[in-house]
């Protein structure tokens, strides 16, 4: 059995596609798991994706798989120069899809871990990350690579596209309320929408990306020094720029507002936006109250998590 966690982007989504830094952390309350059993001779490789009710047979000569899981398995077999083994892989995930939790990268990572281990050559680290990134391109078009990197490394990261991840320290653990809006939104579409705006007015949007870069660097320092109020303030500033990038929505703004009114130190959308999730930084004693307030404002589900604990 192998697994991979969900992830949360704390700062820098969208601007990270244009070379600005971003900060992400694993979110292990949600995860994808893959388990396998040997199958009779001649049956080949089958993936049962329980959450989407699909049974996928993997063939190496299928050159244009329409399914990301099939593609992930093919990439693994090619990397290891292996034929499809007689194996059935059960894949399950508790991560809501298209919600900014990195569900695609997590199921790919769990699947590749299980398959490569079953073949006797477990893939991990940079090799696993490179394969999951290839699959992410099918989900996202032009992904920055932050999702696969934080999910594979399972540790908080400060990420700059093309420069890769840097570890950093969390000076003092902090508490987040995470709220799923219950609205699925395609990251491929939000990334494409921002691209269109940028191409129409490059100077204006470059300035917004630069503003986010300044926020992310300030947030990193605040996280390293454990200054909760400053982390919260940078979250509020980051949300405002994401609104300017048109990736917030009425529902997300309402959840952010509800969290702030209930005493959160800061709140913002997280991930691709226009749906998906919102995160709020809270004093630990206030977490329940903020979670109740965002549910009251319409969140489909909330979690409370400690980062760096
Ligand atoms: O997968 P999501 O919805 O968390 O979005 C990923 C973050 C983006 O910056 C919007 C896209 C990317 O590839 O970095």
SSE topology sketch:
Elements: E1 2-11, E2 22-38, E3 45-49, E4 54-58, H1 68-79, E5 87-93, H2 103-118, H3 125-140, H4 146-153, E6 157-160, E7 164-166, E8 174-180, H5 187-200, H6 202-225, H7 228-244, H8 250-261, E9 266-270, E10 277-282, H9 287-296, E11 301-307
Parallel strand pairs: 3-5
Antiparallel strand pairs: 1-2, 2-5, 2-6, 3-4, 6-7, 8-10, 8-11, 9-10
Helix pairs in contact: 1-2, 1-3, 2-3, 3-4, 5-6, 6-7, 8-9
The chain binds (3R)-3-hydroxy-3-methyl-5-(phosphonooxy)pentanoic acid.
How would you portray this structure in words?
This protein is an alpha+beta fold and 309 residues long. The protein folds into two domains: 2-164, Ribosomal Protein S5, domain 2 (2-Layer Sandwich), CATH 3.30.230.10; 169-307, Alpha-Beta Plaits (2-Layer Sandwich). 42% of the residues lie in helices and 25% in strands. It contains nine helices and eleven strands. The chain has helices at 68-79, 103-118, 125-140, 146-153, 187-200, 202-225, 228-244, 250-261, 287-296, and strands at 2-11, 22-38, 45-49, 54-58, 87-93, 157-160, 164-166, 174-180, 266-270, 277-282, 301-307. The strands form two sheets. Strands 1, 2, 3, 4, 5, 6 and 7 form a seven-stranded mixed β-sheet that branches. It has a four-stranded antiparallel β-sheet with strand order 9-10-8-11. Strand 3 and strand 4 form a beta hairpin. Helix 1 packs antiparallel against helix 3 (125-140) and helix 3 (125-140) packs antiparallel against helix 4. The longest helix has 24 residues, at 202-225. The protein is globular, with a radius of gyration of 20 Å. The mean pLDDT is 96. Bound molecules: (3R)-3-hydroxy-3-methyl-5-(phosphonooxy)pentanoic acid. (3R)-3-hydroxy-3-methyl-5-(phosphonooxy)pentanoic acid (PMV) is lined by residues 9, 13-14, 16-17, 100, 102, 140, 143-144, 146-147, 187, 191, 271-272, 276.
């Amino acid at each position: 059995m192998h697994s991979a966690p969900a992830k949360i982007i704390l700062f820098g989504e969208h601007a990270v596609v244009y070379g600005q830094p971003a900060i992400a952390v694993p979110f292990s309350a949600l995860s994808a798991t893959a388990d396998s059993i040997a199958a009779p001779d001649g049956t080949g490789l089958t993936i049962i994706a329980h959450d989407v009710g699909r049974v996928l047979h993997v063939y190496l000569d299928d050159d244009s798989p329409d399914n990301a899981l099939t593609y992930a398995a093919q990439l693994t077999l090619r990397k290891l120069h292996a034929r499809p083994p007689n194996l059935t892989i059960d894949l399950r995930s508790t991560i809501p899809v298209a919600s900014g939790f990195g569900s695609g990268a997590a199921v790919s990572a769990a699947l590749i871990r299980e398959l490569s281990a079953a073949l006797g050559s477990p893939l991990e680290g940079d090799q696993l990350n490179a394969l999951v990134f290839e699959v992410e391109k099918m989900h996202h078009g032009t992904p920055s690579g932050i999702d696969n990197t934080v999910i594979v490394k399972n540790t908080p990261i400060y990420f700059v596209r093309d420069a890769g991840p840097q570890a950093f320290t969390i000076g003092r653990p902090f508490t987040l309320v995470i709220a799923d809006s219950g609205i699925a939104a395609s990251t491929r579409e939000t990334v494409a929408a921002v691209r269109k705006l940028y191409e129409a007015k490059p100077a204006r949007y470059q300035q917004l990306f630069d503003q986010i870069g300044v926020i992310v660097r300030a947030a990193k320092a605040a996280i390293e020094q454990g200054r909760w109020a400053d982390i919260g303030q940078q979250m509020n500033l980051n949300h405002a720029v994401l609104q300017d990038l048109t990736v917030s929505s009425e529902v997300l703004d309402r959840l952010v507002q509800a969290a702030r009114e209930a005493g959160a130190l800061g709140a913002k959308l997280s991930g691709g936006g226009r749906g998906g999730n919102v995160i709020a930084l809270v004093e630990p004693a206030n977490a329940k109250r903020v979670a109740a307030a965002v549910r009251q404002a319409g969140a489909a589900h909330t979690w409370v998590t400690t980062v760096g604990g």
